[in-house]
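Sequence design from tokenized structure. All designs in this work follow the same two-part layout: the structure record, then the generated sequence. An example of the structure record is given first.
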């Protein structure tokens, strides 16, 4: 347990940071800019932190822009209101994501632009050898913890979350963020803010606020709301690793 719990927490939050900071706020919305060195650094960090569940910044950006344009309508790629359960929504999202990734479906021009792309990391991250290799690494870590560190056998049930970390985060945000909680804004959709649980999702569950101001770097909008990723963004701005994208108003579509 001394090894597994810290490892799970680190994997959870490092993967979640990559998803909210690099895939969501940078790739999909371009809320800030960075030079090519840092773009490649965070691109590779996304691959390492998501491991077996690596998500392409290009496919993620297109998918997410579609979500904003068609929020909670039949064209929304992952609205919980057109799926019987969270697993059906995840499967539907997977099919649309793979179609975008493999260019097997028509993509509207307004969605398909201005995102980071690395042919090398894309090929590596989506290769079956890489995905299986990361999965084996997670299993080996748990076996070592079980054999040498007196880990309880029940912790093996955490392994599927490691395997599917990226999609798990997406499912929580898209299901809970459009079904449960309160609304600060009338966005003509069913987006919600899930205040109590948002510390687990680093700001991503302020979906109602985000759909109102999709390019605001701070997903919180009330005094009692706190977006844990925003201070990290402010620190990176102070360190001059990123710069706010002042050319994009906070209420621009994406």
């Amino acid at each position: 347990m001394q090894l597994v719990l810290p490892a799970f927490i680190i994997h959870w939050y490092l993967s979640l940071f990559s998803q909210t900071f690099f895939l969501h706020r940078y790739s999909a919305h371009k809320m800030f800019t960075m030079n090519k060195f840092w773009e490649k650094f965070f691109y590779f960090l996304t691959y390492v932190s998501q491991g077996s569940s690596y998500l392409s910044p290009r496919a993620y950006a297109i998918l997410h822009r579609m979500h904003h344009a068609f929020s909670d309508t039949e064209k929304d790629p992952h609205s919980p209101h057109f799926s019987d359960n969270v697993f059906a929504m995840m499967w539907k999202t997977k099919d649309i994501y793979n179609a975008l990734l493999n260019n097997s479906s028509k993509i509207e021009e307004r969605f398909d632009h201005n995102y980071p792309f690395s042919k090398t990391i894309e090929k590596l991250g989506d290769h079956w050898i890489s995905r299986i290799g990361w999965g084996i690494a997670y299993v080996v870590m748990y076996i070592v913890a079980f054999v040498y560190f007196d880990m309880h056998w029940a912790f093996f049930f955490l392994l599927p979350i490691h395997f599917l970390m990226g999609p798990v985060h997406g499912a929580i945000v898209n299901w809970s963020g459009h079904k449960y909680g309160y609304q600060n804004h009338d966005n003509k959709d069913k987006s919600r803010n899930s205040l109590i649980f948002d510390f687990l999702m680093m700001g991503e569950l302020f979906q109602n606020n985000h759909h109102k101001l999709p390019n605001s770097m701070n997903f919180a909008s009330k005094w009692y709301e706190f977006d844990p990723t925003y201070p990290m963004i402010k620190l990176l701005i102070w360190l001059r690793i990123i710069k706010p994208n002042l050319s994009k108003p906070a209420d621009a579509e994406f």
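The mean pLDDT is 94. We note this feature because it recurs in several other targets discussed in the main text.
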